[in-house]
Every structure is written in C-alpha cells, then in structure tokens.
Amino acid sequence: MKFFTQQLLELKAYRKDREVLANYILENPHCFGPLLDTCLQVDEAISYKAAWILELVCLKNIKLLIPHLDRFLDNISKVYKPQAVRPMAKICEELTLHYYSKKAISLQFVLTKQQREQLTEICFDWLITDQKVAVKAYAMHCLFLLGKEFKWIHPELKIILDKDYHEEQPAFKARARHILKKLSVQ
Q: Which of 9, 33, 140, 173 has the smallest count of CB within 10 Å of its CB?
C-alpha cells in the first residue's frame, strides 16, 4: 500500500493515470478499505485524489464497496473538498442505479432501508447546499430513483427543483428539466 500511496501523491488528473491506479485496486481488492480510509481523511490533500480512484473502482465493480457501505455512508457527509464531493456523489448515483436496476438483483438485498434513508438525506443535503452542478445532478437523479420507493421524496424534490431552477446554471437546468419531466409523467 506504500507504493500506492506514493502513486496517489504523484497523481495528476489524467484519466489514464487514474485508471492505472483503479486497476491496481481492482487487481488487489484487499486495498479497497485503505483506499476508502484515505478518501475519508478529508483534511488531507491526498483525499480527493483517492476519491477519483474510488469512483473509477466503483464504476467498474460496485460490489467492492458493499463490505464498507456503512463506513462510506456514515462518513460521506464529512467530505467537503469539491474535487472529492463530485466522485462521492457519482458513487452514490451508481449505488442507487444498481440497487433499483432489475438486472442487479444482488445489491437489492444489500442496501438496507436505513442505508437508503441515509442516501436520501445525503442527496438532499447536496441538493440544497452550495455544491457544484455535477454533484447536484447526481443527487437529483438518486433522489428521483429513491422517490420511487419513498413516496414523500418526489414532492419535496419537485419543490426544490422548481425553486432553484431560475437561479442555477444551464447544466443544472437541463438535468432538472429532465427530472421534472419524469416526475410529471408519474
């Protein structure tokens, strides 16, 4: 893991460099826990680089997160650096997509009701606080999916999207229009 930490310290934002480190974790799954630990050291400069790798790993194999799910969800709200929050939000979206997918049956038994409620709280927090557009977009998609199960979410989501729509950036508006359209069809 010392080698990996040194690689993280030297990491640039290039996608191919991030993929090399993500593949290292995928080939050495016992390193996933220490990678998550590094992500959750939120005051350390290296934490956002670890979050970049965690995102790529989870996009390729979300099941590696399952044994660490409680720690991830209990601590994700402490992540505050914008470069780290965006990958965490993407991981939440991926987790939610897998859970509600008819194809990914194995995750349906893993994500408890309490964990889904935690995801809901985290996503609403991201949506109503000063976050980058990508984070808000991932959050609103998660909330849309979670709202299919928890019926109170969709009305609250609609209120927030309607309220913030005119003050937000074009990318937010595009995703909000898409979600609002889906909400109106139901």
A: 9
pTM: 0.91
Residue 8 corresponds to which amino acid?
Answer: L
Show contacts of 116-123: CB within 8 Å, 24+ apart: 116/146, 116/149, 116/150, 117/150, 118/73, 118/74, 119/73, 119/92, 119/95, 119/146, 120/146, 120/150, 120/153, 122/73, 122/76, 122/77, 122/92, 123/89, 123/92
Q: Give the model confidence (pLDDT) of 47-106 as tens digits.
A: 999 999 999 999 999 999 999 999 999 999 999 999 999 999 999 999 999 898 876 666
CATH number, residue 102: 1.25.10
